[in-house]
Automatic annotation (TrEMBL):
Compartment annotation: Mitochondrion
Gene Ontology MF annotations: 3'-5'-RNA exonuclease activity; polyribonucleotide nucleotidyltransferase activity; RNA binding
Name assigned to this protein: Polyribonucleotide nucleotidyltransferase 2, mitochondrial
Extent of Low complexity compositional bias: 851-860
InterPro entries membership: ExoRNase_PH_dom1, ExoRNase_PH_dom2, ExoRNase_PH_dom2_sf, KH_dom_type_1_sf, NA-bd_OB-fold, PNPase, PNPase/RNase_PH_dom_sf, PNPase_PH_RNA-bd_bac/org-type
HAMAP family from the UniProt entry: PNPase
Natural source organism: Anisodus tanguticus
NCBIfam families for this protein: polynuc_phos, PRK11824.1
Composition skew (Polar residues), residue ranges: 802-811, 829-842
Length: 996
């Protein structure tokens, strides 16, 4: 229905009143009517002075519904000077499309059609974040949407119409619910219908999704995110024009069902456009068509037909030899027609090309033999090579006939993902495929410029094809970039990119679900000149570049053995019946399986990478305060680490992700991060630190983000050390293992624990307790590492402790500095002198041998008694040791050692008796303390440890030691000792002995 809206225009108040008289007929028509009328009829009778008029815009609109979405077409209000303009609205999203054509009659042999699609940030109420606060060059999405509009409208321009035409589509407003690309395509069709440009439309463009097996017409963006099919389909009333598909391995049968549904839904767009054009459209203008006369065409055909047939029937010609022979034929005909009309000479290449097309079509339909001598369903010879560039993360070379593509894979941190500024869809993408078509691949000279529409389109098609088989982000957090360089082009380089990209991803160790391959299917048809209907046709598998140029269809289909992942259909005639499109799916599947078999022979599983070149990714958890310390002012410290190491770091809420080229770089950057902000300290963890001070009893080492730990003299070496300064010095960098915490809260570090133990001279092996190994970080290198890591996360504890084992094995402990220890040392000495002034007491304090009984589960009364008794014995041992250091004879030393061993055996027996007495009392969580020995039963056996039942519902975990026999059975009784607790309070136990 037509609607009329009036608005006061103050700019027209001074127009002479006589010009507003309706009887003079002062009107301008431009996609509507513009007139001037008096404000009211009564005002004319009351006064003779001119009054302000009203501007009348006559607008026309059509409303209809498709897929439960209300759609409106409107013209006459906006962009009235354009040759044709339409605003299409779907809910709150509106798109303006305009059409204009040049007025000149320049002679050309091609259609200079330009389609521009633009999304400006004002459409969603946002100011651009660029420096100039303006939109810059067209983004990839804008180029892709422009191609989506161009492909279905181009074949419908009449033959010989070579006038310049420009279609511009702009998003006026976007609610984020609908993708404006389909709306822009339908609006452009309506604008062409309203214009005076000859065009064989209208067309309808529809999107089909599939959710839980049910097809959805015009799905919203939220629905599209959970759909396994994204089909864009364009057609006229009875023929298909364009198809674009992204899917998750959809079968040919299901895709055909989607196409059968899409066609009638797309046809619903046609009648509203026809009605709108009948109300507000312009009369089609008579444009001069660049047509060759029948007489000239017959003359050219007679001269060119036989030489062209001779070239096409010789399969020994290569791509360039055939091209040179055809160009020589054109030059010979040009010399023969030099005395003719100049316009005939200007369109001579186009006419010769028409003759070539007729020759090729007639030979293929009648004989079934193609230009290069292949059968219709034959695939060209294949060559595959994976890993040809071993220094890279992944690489592959794929050749099909004369088409050759080199694909490389580069892995990066999650922060390397591409950021998108589109009005709809995700804000970033972690998988990128960049396709390059350099001039040398066709033996031409050219200049490389910015984004190319063809390169963006081909790269996006290959990207869609491979995206369906990538592992999910939670399993594979890398950002991935595939770079495809076309080395030689003779047809379907985008499908060669799919094949090469799939092999390169496998070579990089990425766990793809399946290999993906693709090829292009062509069509050679014979058309009835009177009706325009196809009388006969042949479907070609794996078309050459020449067959693409002279044929009627370029149907690119990519997928796995299980189904299709991506499709792009381009045609040259004004539509192809849908039945032929569906028939083409089956030879495409046959050819795809042949290529997949060849690719799987080259590489069939993700490759295990060499540590020298394989990338490493680590995800670490920190507090946000610690991450702010790492980033530094405006990210300066983070950038400095990245520049020095070559690694990439990504920071999110509480998470730091590091990606390095290899393990050596990873260790380097982790050392820098640990020194700045540290990690949660774990018993058994190895840390790099710097000696900051040397004492008589040991050295203080700064490590793990500026924290300090004590390296006791007894932990310097497996051999006896008389002076600390003989082994370490201030400023020396060491790799140390955290072995525990003493009674004063100091972290105990060990240097000898990181060194191999020398063999005993008497060949008697002495078993020492080994600190539990630190939990490995989540490093992904190949599919085997992923499975091992998942096994580790679930194997060390039962269902109650799975969450706790994913973190540190022990709680974070307090680390005291050297200065604090010195102050406490002084105060202890003063206190000891004030109490009794005995030299033995101060000596005992200075030795600081921690008592294991202070960590036992005894009552406070028994613990005090035991501590007093042990302190006296240990004071005696200390005095005896000091006498030995002063130079006792070896005989006295042996006696002292024998006496000390007896005393220590007495202490051990006393402790075990007390522990036995304690273990007989009912167990509870409050009574279980560090150092306590209890009897436990094996509750569950995991891959890397045991889950032990301590009684009263208390469960603990025991980790297998390297080389330990693992012949445990559920129900076995073990004598264990509580060595630490996890961050959630789960006891971590060490084995004392088995109970028989």
């Amino acid at each position: 229905m037509a609607s009329v809206r009036n608005k006061v225009n103050p700019l027209l108040c001074n127009i002479p009143y006589v010009l507003t008289w309706p009887r003079f007929g002062f009107r301008t028509i431009c996609s509507g009517r513009l007139g001037f009328a008096p404000s009211t009829s009564s005002s004319l009778a009351d006064t003779d002075t001119p009054v302000a008029g009203k501007k009348v815009l006559e607008t026309f609109s059509e409303e209809f519904e498709i897929g439960s979405r209300k759609i409106t077409l409107e013209t006459g209000k906006i962009a009235r000077f354009a040759n044709g303009s339409v605003v299409l609205a779907m809910e709150e999203t509106k798109v303006l499309s305009t059409v204009a054509s040049s007025k000149g009659d320049a002679v050309r042999d091609f259609l200079p059609l330009t389609v521009d699609y633009q999304e400006k940030q004002f459409a969603q109420g946002v100011i651009p974040t660029t420096y100039m606060r303006r939109e810059g060059a067209p983004k990839e999405r804008e180029l892709l949407c422009g191609r989506l509009i161009d492909r279905p409208i181009r074949p419908l321009f009449p033959s010989g119409f070579y006038h310049e035409v420009q279609v511009m589509a702009s998003v006026l407003s976007s609610d984020g619910k609908q993708d404006p690309d389909i709306m822009a395509a339908n609006a452009s069709s309506a604008a062409l219908m309203l214009s005076d440009i000859p065009w064989g439309g209208p067309i309808g463009v529809i999107r089909i999704g599939r959710i839980s097996g049910q097809f959805v017409v015009n799905p919203s963006m939220d629905e599209l995110s959970i759909s396994d099919l994204n089909l864009v389909y364009a057609c006229t009333r009875d023929k298909t024009l364009m198809m674009d598909v992204q899917a998750r391995e959809i079968s040919e049968k299901d895709l055909e069902a989607a196409l059968r549904l899409a066609h009638p839904e797309a046809v619903k767009y046609l009648d509203p456009q026809i009605r709108l054009a009948a109300k507000a459209g312009k009369q089609k203008k008579e444009y001069k068509l660049s047509m060759v006369s029948e007489k000239t065409f017959e003359k050219i055909e007679n001269l060119a037909k036989e030489p062209i047939e001779a070239v096409f029937t010789d399969p020994t010609y290569g791509k360039f030899e055939r091209g040179e022979a055809l160009e020589k034929i054109t030059q010979d005909i040009k010399r023969a027609l030099e005395e003719g009309d100049d316009e005939d000479l200007k369109i001579l290449p186009k006419t010769v090309d028409t003759v070539r097309k007729q020759v090729v079509h007639r030979r293929i339909i009648s004989e079934g033999i193609r230009v290069d001598g292949r059968h219709l369903d034959e695939v060209r010879p294949l060559y595959c090579e994976a890993g040809n560039l071993p220094v890279l993360h992944g690489s592959a070379l794929f050749s099909r006939g004369d088409t050759q593509v080199l694909c490389t894979v580069t892995l990066g941190a999650p922060g390397d993902a591409q950021r998108l500024d589109s009005l709809v869809g995700p804000s970033s993408k972690r998988f990128m495929l960049h396709y390059s078509f350099p001039p040398f691949c066709t033996n031409e000279v050219g200049k490389r410029t910015g984004l190319n529409r063809r390169e963006v389109g081909h790269g996006t098609l290959a990207e869609k094809a491979l995206l369906a088989v990538l592992p999910p982000e939670d399993v594979f957090p890398y950002a991935v970039r595939i770079n495809s360089e076309v080395m030689a082009s003779d047809g379907s380089t985008s499908m060669a990119t799919v094949c090469g990209g799939s092999m390169a991803l496998m070579d990089a160790g990425i766990p793809l679900r399946e290999h993906v391959a693709g090829l292009s299917v062509g069509l050679i048809s014979e058309v009835d000149p009177s009706t325009g209907e196809i009388k006969d046709y042949r479907i070609l598998t794996d078309i050459l570049g020449l067959e693409d140029h002279l044929g009627d269809m370029d149907f690119k289909i990519a997928g796995t053995r299980n189904g299709i992942t991506a499709i792009q259909l381009d045609i040259k005639p004004a539509g192809i019946p849908l039945d032929i499109i569906c028939e083409s799916l089956h030879p495409a599947l046959k050819g795809r399986l042949q290529i997949l078999e060849h690719m799987e022979r080259e590489i069939s599983a993700p490759r295990i990478q060499d540590d020298r070149y394989s990338p490493r990714l680590v995800t670490l958890k920190y507090s946000n305060d610690a991450l702010r310390l790492l980033i530094g002012p405006v990210g300066a410290l983070k950038r400095k680490i990245e520049d020095e190491t070559g690694a990439r770091m990504s920071v999110s809420d509480g998470t730091l992700t590091i990606v390095a080229k290899n393990q050596l770089v990873m260790e380097k950057v982790q050392a820098k991060v640990d020194f700045i902000i540290g990690r949660e300290i774990e018993i058994g963890g190895v840390y790099k630190g710097i000696v900051v001070s040397v004492k008589e009893y040991g050295a203080f080492v700064e490590f793990n983000g500026g924290q300090q730990g004590l390296l006791h003299i007894s932990e310097l070496s497996h051999e006896t050390v008389s002076r600390v300064s003989d082994v370490v010095s201030v400023g020396q960098q060491l790799s140390l293992m955290c072995v525990g915490q003493d009674v004063r809260g100091n972290i105990k570090l060990s240097l000898k624990a990181t060194q191999p133990r020398p063999k005993s001279k008497t060949d008697i092996s002495i078993d020492e307790p080994i600190a539990p190994t630190s939990q490995e970080v989540n490093v992904w290198t190949a599919i085997e590492d992923v499975s091992n890591e998942q096994e580790k996360q679930g194997a060390t504890a039962g269902p109650e402790t799975i969450d706790s084992t994913s973190k540190s094995a022990t709680q974070a402990v307090l680390i005291r500095s050297a200065a604090e220890c010195d102050e406490e040392e002084k105060s202890d000495v003063l206190n000891s002198k004030g109490d009794n002034g005995s030299q033995s007491a101060s000596k005992s304090d200075k030795t600081r041998i921690p008592s294991s009984l202070s960590e036992s589960g005894l009552s406070s009364r028994n613990a005090k008694k035991s501590k007093r008794g042990k302190d006296a014995i240990l004071d005696f041992i200390s005095d005896d040791e000091s006498d030995e250091d002063d130079g006792l004879s070896s005989r006295n030393a042996k006696k002292s050692k024998r006496g000390k061993d007896a005393i220590l055996d007495f202490i051990s027996d006393d402790e075990s008796d007390e522990d036995d007495a304690t273990s007989k009392t009912p167990m509870s969580a409050n009574k279980l303390n560090l150092g306590m020995k209890v009897t436990a039963k094996v509750h569950q056996i995991r891959a890397l440890g045991l889950v032990l039942d301590l009684g009263c519902g208390i469960r603990g975990m025991y980790r297998f030691e390297p080389g330990e026999k693992r012949d445990f059975e559920v129900g076995d009784e073990l004598r264990v000792k509580c060595s630490s607790f996890s961050t959630k309070g789960i006891p971590v136990l060490s084995l004392v002995r088995r109970v028989i």
